[in-house]
Give the backbone structure.
Amino acid sequence: MKRNKFSPAQNQKPAGNSSQPTAAEKLNPGGIEILPWADEVARRAYFTYLNQGSMPGHDVQHWLAAEADLLAERNLTPSRPRR
């Protein structure tokens, strides 16, 4: 059995320069995350399900993709008040 030659602390250090902004920070420089409502995510996921031929078994993928799309849209557009 091979042993890990690095200590646990060394394994958890980020690679490269940690002062570089991450992709999420580049998309959202203010750090404010505008979360979508669950019904918005459900609606988007349902339309994706319909557009992909209504094949069962991909509900989690549709939900996660819808959530990611909505988050990206919200964080790239100016803030608006929620009703």
About this structure: The CA atoms of residues 45 and 65 lie 8 Å apart. Residues 32-78 form one domain.
